[in-house]
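Summary for the steering committee. One of the milestones for this cycle was to obtain a three-dimensional model of the protein with S-adenosyl-L-homocysteine bound, which we needed before selecting residues for the alanine scan. The sequence and ligand used are listed below.
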Amino acid sequence: MEKYIDETKQGEAIALAERPENGKKLFLESYGCQMNFSDSEIVASILNDQGYNTTKVLEEADLILLNTCAIRDKAEQTVRMRLSQFKTLKKEKPSLTVGVLGCMAERLKTKFLEEEQLVDLVVGPDAYRDLPNLLKETDDGRDAINVILSKEETYADINPVRLGGNGVTSFVTITRGCDNMCTFCVVPFTRGRERSRDPHSIIEECKNLAENGYKEIMLLGQNVDSYLWFGGGPKKDFKKASEMQQSTAISFSQLLEMVAIAVPNLRIRFSTSNPHDMTEDVFHMMAKYKNICNYCHLPVQSGSDVILEKMNRQHTRAEYLHLINRAKEIVPGISFSQDLIIGFCGETEEDHQLTLSLMREVGFDYGYMFSYSERPGTPAHKKFEDDISAEEKQRRLAEVIALQGELSRKRMEGYVGRNHEVLIEGISKKNKNQWKGRISENAMCVFDMQPGQKLGDFVQVYVHGNTQGTLLGETV
Ligand code: SAH
Ligand code: F3S
């Protein structure tokens, strides 16, 4: 599970409004991070123009697509399991096409076609424009593959069809790929070079969302803080750009300001930030514009300098803490969440204790914690030994999760006894008579529905209690 993609949405098939002229049926499931879910909206948009309506009924499908994740071994196992469930379907309906999209497609390439006999189509994250051609090949009975990574592709001109969302919050992709090369991470290999999307098309999309009733956008990228627009092309070519291009380049904090001004009635969030690229001016923008939420997801991975160095995170524990403390000064009350990798190569008990103490020092609202999973071909796989036993990883992970639970509860308690602005995002899962929505600091809040309130309203809620992860309130 990754940030903000509800566990229950993992592997959920998407459903679009029907186009009566479309005769074929697409079953599209997404796994992994927000970027995959956002990409699926692009895929659906492309295929919608190619005669496909979506279906949530597998048996009806002419085309099954899985948008896959390769970040950890377990994510890949989930996809393999899912694929095996399509065997009988394919036997009964030989014309059925099964395709694999996304990071696992990119990582395994033709191996997928060799290993999984029922897969007909393999498409990497930068090749979705080629889907219509690839589908012509599969229609002719041939396997089709395109895993070419691009330095330019940002799908800027494709208007994504918003999938199965709540009509209130939406993703807007601003960068693709990653140039950071953290040693444990497969993303630079599956999503290619980092590139930024034209700010004008970003603003256009945000305005369009506002006009269509959306109330919150999440600016998306593997590493949003390294956003840099100077007229197209990968960031590493910035030095080669003309003087004019360099002097008019747009940074992430400038983009954030442009968006905040362009859609003043929309809440703005962003993810993921990288401590190495994050700068204080982003927090100054947060303080300056009320519609930029007081929340930052800032993965740290480890609290030990030895491990951070081996991970090639390019910052120290002290630098991370300094950034957090500056942010807390600039934006009083700001909340943070983390990503942590437990049991990385050579992690000692002392390193583990440093992770625990860093967590306490920051006081994260929330966290995403995983045991290290070795990924073939990554620098860590080549250079280091995955030498922490599964049992030891599990023990340390349990400690980290337990501590995060305590910290979350403490942070939630800090929101009690005050009014907060909440955006109504949906109906509470536990109680049909309650709304759910988040405060600016991203904590989820539930409260009784009042007459006249509707989805997408901003309401003032008095928070009177909390659980470990949720605020309990009533509208004022
Ligand atoms: N761009 C983001 C990370 C994207 S991957 C960043 O800068 O941090 C999302 C999270 O998955 C990472 O933050 C990391 O905590 C986790 N992750 C990545 N590779 C992993 C691996 N090999 N094993 C376990 N967790 C991993
Ligand atoms: Fe992965 Fe590090 Fe990039 S975690 S996505 S290589 S910032």
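Key point for the committee: The first helix runs from residue 34 to 48.
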